[in-house]
Amino acid sequence: MAAYHLQSCDQPKLLSFFNWFYWMVNLNSTVVFLGIAYIQQSVAKNLCFLIPFTSVLLALIALHMVRNKLTFRPKKGSSLLTTLGVFLNSFKMCCLHYRHLSGDVANWLDRAKENNGGCYSETSVENVKILVKLFPLFGLQLLYRACITQIPSGYYLQTMHSNLKLNGFLLPVAVMKVISILPVLILAPLLELLNTYYQSPKKKLPSPATFITMGHGCAALSALLAGISEIHRKDYPEVEQTLSGKVLQVSSMTCFQLTPQYILLGVAEAFVTPACSLIAFCLTPSNLRGVSLHFLTLSYGGGCFLGAFLIHLLYFVSGGNFYPNNLSSGNMERFFFILATLMAINTLVFWRISQRYADLSVELSSGIKDSPLSEKLLQYKTCLRFYDTMERSDTLTSMETVL
User: Fold this and answer.
1) Which of 128, 225, 289, 342 is the most exposed place for a label (fewest CB within 10 A)?
2) Which region holds residue 167: left if phi is over 0, alpha if psi is between -120 and 50, else beta?
3) In this structure, are residues 138 and 295 in contact, taking their beta carbons and an 8 Å threshold?
4) Are strands 238-243 and 165-166 parallel, antiparallel or unpaired?
């Protein structure tokens, strides 16, 4: 919802917004993992459920109080329903074309246009075609999110079976999650400084696609280090450790030796998430930006399911050896090596197509120019905006003179 207020902002301001937005999200996560996780593990297990319940209740009350200011009413119709309607109508017209009609079109979505027998205007179809160009970006985030989900799954098991004691104090397992958040809290201000430094015409900041490629590479390297750390962890003698009232046989290797793999995933998050949001926001028409960001969020959720599917698949194929119930009796490092290989391939594929998303202005303008009527309307709106700006500036100048 906050991004709706930035419709007319340029790319540096949008990148700044997304950087600080995710910085705040991760700052909140740090408080959660340091506070609630410690209460759950060391103080009272059931008390930790009361804290988020109270927090969500207060949030719902606050949202209800300001709901009128947070409601954006579309001018006419629903963007999501229009987008889905274009897909369904195109598919229906394609089936009808193969059965009865002849003649070809440049793109299968063009069959939804009214001049080709469809039900939607040329502008609506062209906008959806622009959105479709982002689907490879969304699809390649699935495996990346599967790597991120290793923090509360595979990496969590590694940490739980490592030595959590620091000078006699038993650390919560979630302390390693905080380590993965620290790179985001550090890199976001640094990226903001770079964004400010490269705003001059002579200096150019690396494209968001470049940041995504580097982030995917960091995720692949993190999975590789996790496999190496797992081999190294099993070489240490086992000791007893009590977690939540249960006595476990864990490795005597300190959990802080797993820090590099957590840091690399944190660096990946600092690079990938704001850049993906920026691309999804800038490369779509204004009326489809909400739909685009929702598709991006859907790919993040799909990546979580893909991570769970990979775990169950490799567990079934290996007979429990690649993802064992007891880490000491299995070879979990092979799971991490397979994940690192898949993520490396995913990174190469994205690097191959990253030129599509290098320039955040070319794709949108080329898509809109396919419709002469849309181009004239945009020129008309630009003229109105120009004269409106001139009128406001004259008014402001006169007010300053009076003051």
Assistant:
1) 342
2) left
3) yes
4) unpaired
- pLDDT, position 94: 77
pTM equals 0.80
Which residues share a beta bridge with 238?
251
Distance in angstroms (rounded) separating the CA atoms of residues 254 and 10? 47
Tokens of 23: 């910085």
Using 50 as the pLDDT threshold, list the residues of the chain that sit under it. 102, 362-403
Helix axes 289-317, 141-148, angle to 10 degrees: 60
Report how far apart, in Å, the C-alpha atoms of 11 and of each of 206, 213, 383 are: 12, 19, 22
124 within 8 A of 78, measured Cβ to Cβ? no
Asked if 137 contacts 208 with a C-beta cutoff of 8 angstroms, the reply is no
pLDDT of residue 90: 84
pLDDT number for residue 199: 67
Give me the pLDDT at residue 2, please. 65
* pLDDT the model gives residue 371: 45
Residue 248 in contact with residue 160, Cβ under 8 Å?
yes
